[in-house]
Amino acid sequence: MDEYRQMMKFLIRRLLVAIPTMFCIVLLVFSLVHATPGNPFQGEKALSPEVMKQLLHQYRLDLPVWQQFYLYIVDLLHGNFGPSYKFIGQSINGLIFPDYMGGFWVTMRLAIYAMIFTVPLGILFGCYAGLYRNTWFDRLVVMLNMFFSAVPTIVTGPLAVFLFAVILHLLPASGWGDGDFKHLFLPVTILTLAYMPTVAFVTRGSIIDVLNSNFIRTARAKGLPTRAIIFKHAIRPTLIPVVSLLGPMFAGVLVGAIVTEQVFALPGLGILTTNGATNRDYNLVLGITIFGSFLTIAFNFFVDILYFFLDPKIKQ
Amino acid sequence: MPILEVKNLNVSFKTIDGVVQAVNNVSFNVEHGEVLGIVGESGSGKSQSVLAIMGLLASNATVTGSIKFLGQELVGVNTKALNKVRGNKLSIIFQDPMTSLNPYLTIKSQMTEVLMLHKGMSKHDAVIESIRMLDFVGIPEAKERIGLYPHEFSGGMRQRVMIAMALLCRPELLIADEPTTALDVTVQAQILKILRDLQTEFKMSIILITHDMGVVANACDRVNVMYAGQLMESGSLDNIFYEPQHPYTQALLASIPSLEHEVERLATIPGEPPNLLALPDGCVFQGRCHKVHQECKGGDVVVQDFGAGRFMKCNLMQNLTNGINQGITSNVVVN
Amino acid sequence: MVFSKRIKETLGVPKAKGFWQNAFRRFSHNKLAMVSLIIILLLALLCVIVPMLSQYSYSQPDFTGSLQTPNLKHLFGTDGLGRDLYVRSFIGGRITFEIAFAATVVVLLIGVLYGSIAGFMGGKIDSLMMRFVDVLYGVPFLFFSILLLTLFGQSLMLSFVAIAAISWLDMSRVVRGQTLSLKQKEFVEAAVIAGVGKWKIIIRHIIPNLMGVVVVYAALVVPNMIVLSAVLSFFGLGVMEPMTSWGLLISDGSQNMDSWWLLLFPAMLMTITLLAFAFVVNGLRDALDPR
User: Fold this and answer.
1) Residues A187 and A75 in one domain
2) Least enclosed by CB within 10 Å: which of A103, A192, A280, C61?
3) Is the pLDDT of residue C11 over 80?
4) Looking at chain A, which residue has its C-alpha nearest residue C248?
5) Residue A50 belongs to what domain range?
């Protein structure tokens, strides 16, 4: 009961931070977009003043900015990102969450697959490297971290495609196919390789620190077998820095998934963002940015809850 | 038979700069029911020698010699055999109670696991026994507080928890590695009293490591004086305090502030301990000894055994006349 | 003057000269970092002189000699329009470096000022300023960059200045933390007691002593900006034809994998540069920020 109340208090406190943050983000990007001179319909083939006026009215762009903002927030609270300026007649919701396999569904699939491999394998490899320091495996973890945190997916991705698709003819070079193993193998692997070594490296450093700590010495002095020392005493403190890595990493994987989509020509949020950017569909880019921010903040919130269960000191 | 027999113990560490000789050919015994103090400055090897007994040295350490606990050899045995002894018949408490308890587990979980492991108790019985032990070391409301985490206790209270945890299996020998150094002076006295009380209650032996001669005077029966990894002098508390023979022991005692005599300046020992990477030839104390002479600067140092467990490692010949010993009974040359 | 010098000595104001000499000595003993630094300088030099000295133009198509495999006349081969890839790789490198350095300068300016002011002022101002940083952290960085490029797309440099204007978050956090610890130091306290103005303390005492961390971070920002500019090229944003950048070349190369040289040479140059920067950052961290 006490535990439950503590947790509710903690959650509410976190929510009181998360909600204003989200509001500020919306305010910031919204004003950035609307402070830009001109409107989205200029620059293309010249439109007659009547048509322009009609368009502005249709998209509420003739209202004062604060009113537009108010209406935008109201729409957002209803889960509505508004209309697209360029894909005539389409809503941004329809573009981000289409009825077919595309948009966010592709990106989410990719990100989730990558996280499924990244986190458990990263922790496992990191623990193993930290427990068996200075072995070849340990050195490999350190080297892979060095390489993949320096060289991004836009370099490793095309190189992998070149090797496995063009030279070895093992896998298709690009496309979603029907989401089958052969089409997803390379994108998921490249995305996993971009983030897993970091998780492994952080875990490795963390477990090395923990095993050198005084309380592990106490556990050894009590005569506990090695297994109990690692699984009961060492694993929680080892995971704490890893968990704090997960929040920013989720944002990283989400963005990484979009970049990977560009490399492998997958029909996800990436292509949508490109279309929005090159067609200067402000509302679409705005919607995707806000949606991405929402996911990031939501995931950080989730990580905070994890923290609550891992670290007893946070409860106070 | 002594509870613990340490013979020719050597501990060295491989480091980037070379081999550090932390403990150098140390031999001593701990008898049943006695409190043995080991004093020395930091770096004198006092902590490393007991960590060697517990098998808790860092992974770059090499141990040679013999450590026999209740007749069982501890040097070179595997972790599994060691784990049957430590936490059970042989326990240790550490200097820093703030970091020596696992901050992520409750006191209950950290205490009961010892009893469940070594005594095969059920969780229920282990909790009852743990609470009893916490009561014993003077933790108020132990029944409620056993479910708390270490950060919810003060430093002195945490050290009590550490002591309670170490005593759960009624060890034959408790090692206390500077148990009061990190604590306030008033708390220090309480902790020492608890140790003393428990020692008579449980009839166990204690090795008390400290750099504080005051703590030694309060708590110990016998004293080993260590310097630069070597045992310099050993004897009963009275021997060491009232008739110290070794120049180092004498210097240590002279540096204790006294309430009876007014002194203008507190005596200090000039100079610094030798570099453990490159010990000098001859006596390790030669650089700071005011009675140093030529033969101290090379060759072996004489170990003078005065009998009754009293000896010192020094070339100065002493004739003890107070009747404990009839002069020098034997000269044993080590190294 | 003499008086202030004496104060400096007694209060233990860090002697800047010795610090940098030590740092340089430690860095120069790190072979990997030194070699990497030389490689970076060499590449930068090539990026300047190759386009200047080459007989080929990076922009002029030559349809008679398109898609040549690497040969003695065209070391890296030619692209689909017959342009020399060797020249294009290095002009692309020049643009990439220019963007990265310009952005880094902006990041440094904003990050150091913002962080040191927040850290030094403390209290309400500090927490307000840091809340703002937290808000910006909530926006996925790439989306924000794309948004900015969509808005400022006409001017490449302006876009990157805008992107840099949102990339200083890490820098400001690090600088703030460092400032907080500097604030406790005796020489800053002494300056406060002596009645030296806040701004003067920030500029004279705080910022010079931050330089160690700042140099490490700057070396980290440059490769990040190189990567970002390349990633944006994959989204069709940033550098436009006929001008090129490493990102654009790799993007083109990945569309034409049958002509392997179009991908491999730019990818190789970029990999080498990024790894070299990673080793330099490691070396700088060990040399300047011994923790």
Assistant:
1) no
2) C61
3) no
4) A154
5) 2-96
